[in-house]
């Protein structure tokens, strides 16, 4: 298997997440997929906020989970999650709409 080539594009990854993360997939958008990883955005809604209008810790950890685990199917192809992952997550504030994004990185 050639891990320098992505096995899924952004739309294929979103369809995969709709199955594997069915309970929360509608809260996330895949912004881009590259050989270096993928960028997943949390579609921030009122339920993700704590008093004061900041994004809650559990919402950010959900983003880390979905964003981090998205790197494996991009690199390896669409298959159910299993095994261990070493995740490196970088959160970046996005302008407009209070959205947050996370980069999931894997061997693609």
Describe the structure.
With 108 residues, this protein is an alpha+beta fold. The protein has a single domain (10-104), classed as Thiol Ester Dehydrase, Chain A (Roll), CATH 3.10.129. The protein contains 3 helices and 6 strands. The chain has helices at residues 10-20, 57-69, 71-76; strands at residues 28-34, 37-42, 49-50, 54-55, 91-93, 100-104. A hairpin with a 3-residue loop joins strand 3 and strand 4.
Essential attributes:
single chain, 108 residues, alpha+beta, Thiol Ester Dehydrase, Chain A, 4-stranded antiparallel β-sheet, two-stranded antiparallel sheet, 23% strand
Shape: elongated
Uncertain segments: none
CATH architecture: Roll
CATH topology label: Thiol Ester Dehydrase, Chain A
Strand order of the largest sheet: 1-2-6-5
Distance between the termini: 10 Å
Order of helices and strands: HEEEEHHEE
Strand % is: 15-25%
């Amino acid at each position: 298997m050639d891990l320098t080539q992505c096995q899924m594009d952004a739309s294929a990854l979103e369809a995969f997440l709709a199955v594997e993360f069915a309970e929360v997939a509608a809260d996330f958008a895949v912004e881009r997929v590259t050989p270096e990883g993928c960028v997943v955005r949390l579609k921030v809604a009122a339920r993700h906020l704590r008093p004061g209008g900041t994004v809650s810790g559990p919402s950010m950890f959900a983003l880390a989970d979905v964003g981090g685990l998205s790197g494996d199917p991009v690199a390896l192809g669409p298959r159910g999650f299993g095994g261990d992952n070493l995740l490196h997550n970088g959160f970046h504030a996005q302008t407009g709409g209070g959205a947050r994004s996370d980069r999931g990185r894997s061997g693609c």
